[in-house]
Every structure is written in C-alpha cells, then in structure tokens.
Amino acid sequence: MFNYRFSRRVLFILFLLLFSGIRVFGYEIFYPSEKNYTTTYDYGLFVGKARSSESITINNEKVFVASNGAFAHSVKLREGDNRVFIRSNYSTKVYNICKKKEVTKVQPEFKEVVEHVVLVNKDNVPLRSAPEDIGFNIISYLFKDTRVIINGEKGNYYRVFLSKDKFAWILKSDIIEFVNADKTPASFINTESQKYKNASIQTISFTKNLPYTVEDGEKEILFRVYNPELSENSVYTLNILKPRNYFYNVTLKDGLYTFKVSEVPKNLEDLTVVIDAGHGGTEGGAVGCLGDREKDINLRIALELQNILKEKGVNVIMTRECDGTISLKDRVKLAKENDADIFISIHLNSIGNIHLNRFQNRGTSVYYFNKNSKELATILEKSIPKSAGTQRDGVKTASLAVIRPANYVGVLIETAYMINPLDSLLYSQEDFAKNVAKGILDGIKSFISE
Ligand SMILES: [Zn+2]
Predict the structure, then answer these.
(1) Would you call 219 helix, strand, or coil by DSSP?
(2) DSSP sequence for 304-324
(3) Tens digit of pLDDT for each residue in 425-448?
(4) Residue 25: band (very low, low, confident or very high) from pLDDT cuts 50, 70, 90
(5) How far is the CA of 345 from the centre of ligand 1 (A)?
(6) Is 411 among the domain residues?
C-alpha cells in the first residue's frame, strides 16, 4: 500500500537535502547588487564568494577562485544589451547589463564680456587656470566679497583678469554682480612678517578684498595678490621659505591677507594627526568578494592606528569612531579646526571601468594632491606593504576632497583591493589592521625624522 505520510516525509527530507546542498555548493554574488542595470562603463564587474572549490564560469570563461572562495571577474560590455551567465554545477544566474553610449559634451565657445568688477559670493571659491572642473587647475580658493574683474566667458565660467597677460577662471554661479557699491580701486596699506612657533607668517593689507594665487615653488611658497584696477601690472608677491615638511594656509579679512607656512613637528608628541576612516553609515564604500564592506575594514584600521599613535603620544583626532555617516566637508573642517599637521584617510580600493587583472589591480596605493604631501605618500607606499604584506601599487595623484587642502600634509591610502580575491586573503586576516597601522606609524616616523 502506498503510504502517503511516509512519502511526504521522504520528500521533505529530499527537499531539505537539496536545499542545504545548494547552500554548501552554491555561490553568492555581492556585486553588482542588481541583476538588471544600465551603465556607461566598458566592463561589468562581478564580485562574489563560492562556497566550495567547485568551478564557476562567467560567460563560459573559467573564473579564478581563491582558497577562501573569493572571486572577481570583469566582462567586456558592448553597446546595448549584454546578457551575462554565471554558472556553477548547481546554479545559473543571469544578469542583464545595458551599456549606454557616453554623451560627449559640446565645447562652448569663448566670448568677450565688457570688462567690469564683480564680487565672489562665498568663501572657498576655486579660481582656476582653465574653464574646466578638474582639481589640478585650481590656483587658489577665493574668499567671499573678493573683487574680481571679468572680461570673458566660456560655458559656465567667466574669465578673470589678474594682471597683464595673466587670466584665470571662475564659475558664473560663484559671483554676484557689483551694484551700487564703491567703485574706487583698492590701495595698498602695509605688509608685515613674523615668526610664530613652527610657522612663518606674512600679512599684507589693502583697502579692499583682492584676488590672490599661490604657487608652491622650488624653495619657497609664492603668494601673489593682484590689484588690476589700480594698474594692470600691479602684483604684490610675498615669498616664504619653506621647511622640508610643510603646509600652508591663507586667510582674508577686511582686505588683510594672512599667509602662513608651517613646519610639520619633528616629534611624535608634538604632532596632530587626523585619522579618517573612509565612508561609514549609509555609505558602505566598496563591496568585497566575501560580502564585507569597505567602511568596516577602514574603521578597523583607523582604530588600530588611533591606539598605536596615542601610545606614542601623538594628538589624534578621529573623523569617526563608529559606523556613522559624515560628509567629506565635515571631515576637512574637523582637520582645519584642530590645526592638523597630517591627515590620513584610510580606504580600500575597487576598480572602475577597467579590465580587472588580479595580479596588477592589487595591493597598496597612496594618493596625494599637493606637492607638500608627496613625500609622505612615497614613504607610506613602501612602509605599509612592508608591514602588512601587500603588494606595492604606486604613489598616485588625484583631486580628492579630503586631501585637496594644503592646510595639512594629506594622503589617502588605498590599503588593498576589496575586489581582488588575492587581497581578500590578506585583509580578512586577524592582524591585517594592526599590521597596516604599524606600517603607517613607521612611515610617519621616518617622514618627520631628518
Ligand atoms: Zn573608499
């Protein structure tokens, strides 16, 4: 006789086995999070973890799986629809990626504008050497109510006349027209220089707020203040000799510029270091092969670094000590308010629209923006791999918000690649954070010692 109850039980057990079987032998994809998405990228990246050593293919290409199950694989996308099949012995997943053509912008034309004076409408307005929003063309940050002469336009930018043959560019939205205001040109009042602790300070005073530029020269920092309303050759240049390790800042109040060049202290006990754990809270950062989030590993390293620096007597400021959301602007503000000497931003890398090469897109890279931060970046790019066992991935420059100010020596460390299976073997180890922190401490020590 057919035992209905018995066969149901057998079916149930079979179902359980099958279900747990999938869990033992299956794989998980952590990136991308959507099965259908649109991109302008040339490559689609797949990051995940296999639960056993079974083989995985993506569009029939065998995928390298590290001993911890981590894998990452990029697929070349063609314009339009791309179907990507991820297969293991037990399951197949299908992703639909639509690649859109990148829209090329039409270059606006240059037009003359009747020469007139306008006012900068807020603090921290970039003055650029070209009418384009790229970090490396910033020649200074203007203050609110600075008077600038404009005489041309291109797209969203006005051309600023600084002196004979010297022009710069400012966003149209960063100025207001000058109505019913005193139109007499500014005149020079006085200039002074003084030494204060580890800093050289020069002041220069005018009857009005004038534009300025900064140039980090061979041996000195050159601050130039332009008074083009008075004469087209009216430029005041202040040079301050720079020490070996330095940072600088500028303030302006009622026509009085203060230019300050500071020396990085030579002892750990005199040093103020801002430790910036990248991302946090609602911003997870990159996703790793094992499903881990960049923000958590960044914080782990930052907390280890906090410990080890505090032990040495360093004054440490943390941008975050838990999993909270904090804006880039606030991170910079915190550093400026606390007169930081060094700013260390901690991240782990991902890749953009490139083909992933697990032997090349691997290891520690260190970014800097200003010349004054190059040496620390160069030292850290060696000291971290030495201590943490990562591969060296180069010293690089990038216009990133937290390292753009010259108010401190600022570096951004991409400790390892979240999405590299070989790096995931390293960064998921117990002592990885400690070893990175030690590498950073070693780097700071050799940076400040002569
Ligand atoms: Zn990051």
Answers:
(1) coil
(2) HHHHHHHHTT-EEEES-SSS-
(3) 999 999 999 999 999 999 999 999
(4) low
(5) 9
(6) yes
